[in-house]
Amino acid sequence: xxxxxxxxxxxxxDLVAENTSDVDSNQEFSQPPRVSDQxxxxxxxxxxxxxxxxxxxAIPTPVYHAATYSFDKTDDLLRFVHGEDIREEYGxxxxxxxRSVEAKIAAMEKTEQAVxxxxxxxxxxxxxxxxxxxxxxxxxxxxxxxxxxDFCVNHLSRFGVVTRQVPxxxxxxxxxxxxxxxxxxxxxxxxxxxxxxxxxEKFAAIGKANEVETLxxxxxxxxxxxxxxxxxxxxVLHSATKYLGGHNDLIAGVICGSNELLEPVxxxxxxxxxxxxxxxxxxxxxxxxxxxxxxxxxxxxGMKVAQFLETxxxxxxxxxxxxxxxxxxxxxxxxxxxxxxxxTFTVKDADWRQTANVVDAARIPRIAPSLGGVESLxxxxxxxxxxxxxxEERLQYGxxxxxxxMSCGIEDADDLIADLDQALRS
Length: 426
Ligand SMILES: *Cc1c(COP(=O)(O)O)cnc(C)c1O
Prior knowledge:
It is built from 17 helices and twelve strands. By secondary structure, the protein is an alpha/beta fold.
């Protein structure tokens, strides 16, 4: 439109006024008007949670490198301390980059709120420390992230919290282990590295029937493939280091749930200071925008690679919940929209060295811990995460010497398959 036709109201000063005045800070962190609960998942990933009116009209959330935040006048501070204005105060309690990512992940996970931490483990430690007291008990399904078990068994115990472990998927054993001291039931789904899928309906129902809170570490599932809160699970945890960040370039963790349940978690985070730098959150926000595309591709590639491995003469067994022979395939098929990019398999008649030779012969995947990023990664659990365990412990955890875990990135599936084929034949 030629400028001569601009209505008077579009003077420069009005534009400035429109962008800055009458915007209460509460609104800044609410859903931008273009996104609603009805928006598609990709739209949510790209737009949810970001303040609609950003400084200078920047498209990404600007990186707010600030340790502290000012108030114009005492009345503004009073509004804040009375809870009438949600905004930043001091950097240990959070920053605008964290808030935008938290709101985005809460929208993706369909929960009221999300609290972001400096790592997945910081989120796990944060939720347990804010919820449990001496004398309390928690019950775990036993296939679980090694460091989660480590924290509960070796550290929570020092504060008088008892951890009980029951076999993964044994719902009767879990219910039978509940006492009047039990506060929380905990599981991963799918588990690592066996990719066992937990029946969330049953799991949540046991919690509800016994008035015990439930927590699912859904890192391997991702919010694209599964939303545990829809089944009544109270806390949904992610290592954002994995699929949410997705680029093997940041460490973060997040816990999702209701406002009420997460209030003490956020409160303790403000004391312990397990927060993220604004720069780290800029990377996570950027990763989340392509989350849907990446994980869709990883679901597809994961399935193709698993099907290929299943028929390979040198492969003994494949663990992938998308394959009908997986013990929890039926639950997975009912409960998950995709099965992810992580595949575990064993090499036929191979000792640890012959298995290591397969890992070494693969050219595309890098040998590294972690999963979920755009670059494929490969590892032999015996030598990566379980090296310091005794053979008896490895037997107990189900980690044979000939096991390989591969995290598919977003490379071409055909290239990954050809590479694994030559590695297995070498
Ligand atoms: C990686 C991982 C964690 C720990 O997350 P960090 O970000 O590394 O602290 C917890 N649970 C699962 C299932 C994981 O894969």
